[in-house]
Amino acid sequence: MEGEALQVQGRAFEGGVGYWELGAWKPLSLSARQRARLRKEVLLAGEDWPYDPPRKEMRDKRKGTNKMPQMLLDYKKRRWEKKMKAEETEKD
């Protein structure tokens, strides 16, 4: 398996999707499943897989978490006011 992985990796494997040769696009002869298996083998062998796109940095905080307690209180107040208004209209 490792010999096969290194053979395939030695080919023109630019980005793992295909490559340009003499002005024509040549799709890679590997399916996505085969590419994933090959990537897994290479990583398990302790080698580097340089064809992954760079990952973006993850954000630590969500957007509205600071405002959430106040938003909940406002929501409860609106619901209470709506309930009181409905009760008043029932009495009249």
Features:
mainly alpha, 2 strands, two-stranded antiparallel sheet, 92 residues, single chain, 50% helix
Written overview of the protein:
This protein is mainly alpha-helical and 92 residues long. It has a domain at 2-44. Helices cover 50% and strands 9% of the residues. The protein has helices at 2-10, 32-44, 68-91; strands spanning 18-21, 24-27. A two-stranded antiparallel ribbon has the order 1-2. A hairpin with a 2-residue loop joins strand 1 (18-21) and strand 2. Helix 1 (2-10) packs across helix 2. The longest helix is centred in the last third of the chain and has 24 residues, at 68-91. It is elongated and about 85 Å long. The chain starts with a helix and ends with a helix. The model has no long low-confidence stretch (mean pLDDT 80).
Largest sheet: 2 strands, antiparallel
Spatial separation of the terminal alpha carbons: 83 Å
Topology as a string of helices (H) and strands (E): HEEHH
Number of separate strands: 2
List the uncertain runs.
none
Mean pLDDT: 80
Described by the principal axes of the CA atoms, the overall outline is elongated
Strand order of the largest sheet: 1-2
Q: Percentage of helical residues?
A: 40-55%
Radius of gyration: 29 Å
**Classification by helices and strands:** mainly alpha
Strand content: 5-15%
- Total helices: the number is 3
